[in-house]
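Narrative of activities, Objective 1.

The group set out to show that a structural description can be obtained from nothing but a protein's sequence at a throughput compatible with the screening campaign. Below is one input-output pair from the validation batch, recorded exactly as produced.
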Amino acid sequence: MGLYKKREDGNEQPSMLGPLKLRLPFVHYKIEYPDWLQGAILCVVPMSITAVMMDTLGIPFELAIAFVIINNFLYLLHTHFGDPSVAGWITAGIPLYVGFLAGFPEGEARILALIALQLTVAAIFLFMGIFKGADVLVKKVPTSLKAGILLGAGFAALYGEFADGGRVWTMPITILLGAALGFFMMFSKTAAPLRERYPFFRYVAQFGIAIPFALAYIFGIIIGEVGVPQISWSIVALPVGEIISNYSIFGVGIPPLGYFLQALPLAIAAYIIAFGDVLVASSLLKNADEVRKDEKVIFSPARNSIIVSIRNFISGIFMPFLPLSGPQWTGGQALVLNRYMNNSRKQVDSYWGGATGIYWGMSIALLLGPLVTLFQPGINIGMALTMLIQGYLCGYLAMEILKEKGTLEKGIAIIIGAVLATQGAAWGLGVGIVLWIILEKQWVNKRAVPQSEDESKSV
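Output recorded for this entry:
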């Protein structure tokens, strides 16, 4: 009998190994097949990064998809060791990573640069996780700098898709149709009441960009913008030996110190971007805890940071992964929580079944040749939709955190964003710090107004 059945209302889900909180399928959580199915449908989302990896790193699709599959299984470290986060990439920074890597010659030098970046990010997360200072750094960073980094990431994401040679122009009708449908489903004022009024629309909207992608993909094939898929009825190979020989530190060596120094500003920017996901995860899970009183779901930013660090270290040592490893995939987190919060324990026994199920379903789907080859011609569509939506969200979040600030902070944020998007993270951070020092930092205190004679006598 599964131990999950013994959970008393209001308690945490059973686990083992004490503070490690290891949870195993069938023993500590029930398999939630609807979440497995959602994950399988959404396998196109992680597949979309293969297009960027092929262009930037010069690797073939067969290796890129292997990187994606291995990374997907690493997500399960979170939910199997007590962290309820549905983990993901540090997505908003992808255009910044691509720009950074473009400064190195294609081939081994670029791989070494990515290894240096990923290991530096891993070290930052480990430090902040061990010393439980995840919020200290972000609180010390000026709002104008945080907003500027988000704006820069948003500008870079949108510019990269619409610039000459951008993905939008490879299949303009298909991608713009998919973007229109995706933005309507996720952000439209019209869609919100439709979700509330019609269960079918609400069900479809839960799949995020999966349905808009599928509709645009089919339409693109019909009009000839997208190639017809060549289905392969095999299991996707994982050439682990080739990956270790050609892309790990055991094959290409440890990057020179100069590579780490060049990567440091971007790693700091990536961490600041990622910490926003930590705050979002904490808020979402707290809300779920208030709705589902039968189960206590505890989110620890320190635990999350340490597991994120472990994932980045594993990737940095064995197979550098271009979008890096981040704290949360907000879309997937929302899908799991929506089903969990809108059902009783009888329908959804525990949060952990859904949070693990979405990645079990997605990871297994990525191993199936028929599914992978079915979607392969459309990977540019998936990546374009991801980046366009990411650009929107980065801009929106930047505006939100500047809402209560004055014109000075807003102006500085715009300058930082523009410099960061065009010249990279080092220039963006450098300009931001200089502007903060000479404009925002108040070096001279206002003189105290002297007391009047009457006030002095009264004292």
